[in-house]
Specification:
Helices cover 47% and strands 7% of the residues. The protein contains 11 helices and 6 strands. β3 (118-121) and β4 (124-127) form a beta hairpin. The chain is globular, with a radius of gyration of 17 Å.
Amino acid sequence: MRLNPFDTGNINVRSSSGGGVGKAGGLGCGTIVIAALGYFVFGLDPFQTAATVESVQQGTQQAGPANTDEQAICSSSAYAREACNGLDSLNSTWARAFEEQGLGDRFQQPTLDLYSGSVRTACGSGSSSMGPFYCPGDQTIYIDTSFYDQLARMSGNSGDFARYYVLAHEYGHHIQTITGVSDQIRSVQGQVGQTQGNQLQVRMELQADCYAGVWAGRNRNLIEPGDIEEGMQAASAIGDDRLTQGRVSAENFTHGTSAQRSEALRAGLRGDDSVCDEYTNLS
């Protein structure tokens, strides 16, 4: 995908390596988004880990230092530069989308934290084994870019669009946060059992996939041959059914099947974010 070089004036980027610490916010296991993917890949139990993250949130943590030299961070590697280019494009695309709907005052840019190894967030502890994730407590997308090599092995391709899809998916969770959708779903989840709660989580994840497609659809002039196929392969590779290979029942799926995730991404490619509303419409 032919994205323009990042503009440090249009992005919020930092790097917290080995324990930049935030204040716990009691946000529950909604903090884990694409994270469950990493747990299946690395052989860990995402449901046990969700409980661990929630327990971390019960305490108060002190803020620690983080590198905020955006130019240096974004220029530190090819993956970092690519992520910053993607963030810049996502910020501009979604800012325009909100303006078009008369909601410009509600749009807020997220922060991108390109950490390494482990990190403390407003949602508890995170590590590279979790894969990329979004924390609503500090409105930050956390990515250890070493994950991208794992993604390439999983999806069978090393194209940049697969990586942009992951970033755009996490950005989709930020959109859910600033529009209030995330809070609405969490409220309902607190009133139902685990199976229904998981089904609601799947809806959230599919909507985030759809939002990733919306971003790409609104930038079709920048898409190169093979990009869409790369995105579909990545979406298929991280479906719950494919990741668990029967180890987890469908009732415990939290992200959706390969077919569901691919279809959600495809739906968003029309460039109309209203089509994504159906995933979290509870009426």
